[in-house]
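Bumping with the actual sequence this time:
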Amino acid sequence: MNKFRQMRVNEAARETLSDILRTVKDPRVSSSFVTITAVNVSRDMKFAKVYFSCIGGAPKEVKTGLYSAQGYIRSSLAEKLNLRITPELTFEYDDSAEKGARIESVLKSLGMNGDEEENEQDN
């Protein structure tokens, strides 16, 4: 599969999975705010790695809930995407937002935030 098609399938799967997660009834998933940050589908379309972040829940519990609802999520994905092969899903927690917030707080504590640069440009 060429890279352009793979990128289109990744983006379509990310959007579709975001919609599907709103309908999951597992309390570990529905009680926390889960966001799909990225999807990487393998070249042969048999496997997909789904990266998620969550607010209001423990990442391990949310991951367990996602694996519990994996059959429902995969069948809904197959119904909505209409691909020849529906990939097997694996879920990975994406902590990049937490890392970014931590870096921002360190920069603020050092006095190196972007507000000072903006104030200098305005003068």
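The tokens above came from a reply further down the thread. The chain has a mean pLDDT of 88.
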